Amino acid sequence: MQNSPISPAKGSRKLLKKLSSRDIDVQTCYQCNRCSAGCPVADYFDLQPMEIVRLASYGMEDQLLASSTIWLCASCDTCATRCPNDIDITALMDVLRELALRKDIPPAVPQVPAFHASFLESVRRWGRTYEIGMIGAYKLRSGDYAGDMKLGISMLAKGKLSLLPHSIEGKPEIREIFAGKGKEYER
Amino acid sequence: MKMTYYPGCSLQGTARDYNDTILEVCQTIGVELNEIEDWNCCGASSAHMTNHEVAMRLSIRNLLLAAKSSDNVLIPCSACYQRLKAADKALREDPEYWDVTDYNPDFKLVHISTFLAEPEILELIADKVIQPVGKMKVACYYGCLSLRPPHITDAPNHEMPTTLENIVTAIGADPVSWSHKTECCSGSLTMTRPDIAGKLVGEIVEAARRGGATAMVTDCPMCQANVESRQELPPGASMVVYYATELIAAALTGSYPEKQQKVHLVPAHALQAHMERSAHNVGTASGSTTETTSQKEESA
Fold first, then answer.
1. Does position A4 have pLDDT exceeding 80, yes or no?
2. Does B248 touch chain A (CB under 8 A)?
3. Mutating which of A35, A75, A175 best tests the B interface, going by the most B Cβ atoms within 10 A?
4. Burial of B50 (0-12, 13-18, 19+ CB in 10 A)
5. ipTM of this predicted structure
6. Which residue of A lies nearest to B47 if distances are taken between CA atoms?
7. Which of A111, A116, A128 comes nearest B41 by C-beta?
8. What are the chain B neighbours of A120 within 8 Å (beta carbons)?
């Protein structure tokens, strides 16, 4: 075991402190595997949910932030709901994604953070989601120009996509939120 | 009865028809909805998945706007419901942490199916039914976010909920027992990984069909769009996904308009067919409320 790259001695204590500040107690995992068993997307992960929890308990930040799992997790909350020890695995995934973005770790599934960025850009600009603008921004970011063209046209024809954005009055407040209000505490 | 209303972004876009039927149903049963003035997006999955602080503060702004009234807040979208509930709980626990001096409103945040399945609301609906939807076999589909995690959603039966079943039974449909009613359809990955969404949706639709359903009924706008758009089936084999309020509105008005059918991405005539059959069976196409009630009793 001495040569194993996975060892509590090599883990990030900062990561463990961060998790504990969000009440995510990964140390209580006894590896029952209910999280992985119930996960609808687990087939596509490079690390199973239970492996994510175990690596987190060792503070193995590098492996976690480089994994495809953190981006392919659909955030359906099945794992967290079924964990007998109340480990909030969904929130763990949230923390890992946020850290990966802040640290500029190349994402294993780049189109997923590209989608989130496009979605949030639309909210930041208008205060509400502007679907067509969001889809356009996503296509530019991801390079996926042709995908879902037929579906998009069909949805447009059925009046499911609004041509104009829904803008709100309180945009200055929204900008303030996105500018990092509260972030000054680095939490 | 008065309620504050938070529609959320989907109900102004891809799920506009969901919004229309909610307003129609509430008006018919005498529930006054007051939309939160100048509400903003709750951030949905994208915000909490990548930026905790932004996610919380987007929802908090909505909660502070809603707190101008003490009426309960009706939330039809599962994602919005979960995000606003999470923020409401965190804010009640420690408002100062979120730069709010005082937060202890009397209102509850209420998810639409919890609200519609309350016995007194079901009674109001049943009283106003003009034409029951005719024993249509439906698979009630909840998805994830109105139920999980239960410490946020306060859903009493998060693995085996029954609110949608109670609602559709009240308007004459026949809910089937099936295996996937709380399985995730991977709506949050539908644009980025349509292959995953296609697989999960395929399994859900197959399970609904195995359960004997001719249609699905949901209360989640993301599930509705995702399950209808990601079925890799020939049009004849596809499964329509109705909003619960769409069914109620049809039962309350006695018809399922062509215009509404056309909004679906897959053929949606099943409801109209069942209503016509049911009208034919009870021997009237336009019976009054009292007539249909007595006829229902006869056939029961």
1. no
2. no
3. A75
4. buried
5. 0.94
6. A120
7. A128
8. 43, 46-47, 50-51, 54
Between the CA of residue A109 and those of A103, B3, B255, what are the distances in Å?
A: 16, 42, 46
The answer for B170, left when phi > 0, alpha when psi is -120 to 50, beta otherwise, is alpha
Report which residue type is found at A120: L
Q: In the 8-state DSSP scheme, what is residue B283?
A: T
Residue of A nearest to B266 (CA): A154
pTM: predicted TM-score of the whole model, two decimal places: 0.94
Give CA–CA dist B81/B219, Å, rounded. 11
pLDDT for B37-78, tens place per residue? 999 999 999 999 999 999 999 999 999 999 999 999 999 999
Cβ pair B245, B16 in contact under 8 A: no
How does residue B285 score in pLDDT terms, banded at 50, 70 and 90? very low
Share of chain A above pLDDT 90, in %: 80
In this complex, is the C-beta atom of B225 within 8 Å of any C-beta atom belonging to chain A? Answer: yes
Chain centre to alpha carbon of residue B217: 8
Residue of A77, A113, A123 lying closest to B148 (CB–CB): A77
Q: What is the DSSP code string of B84-104?
A: HHHHHHHHHH-GGGGT-S---
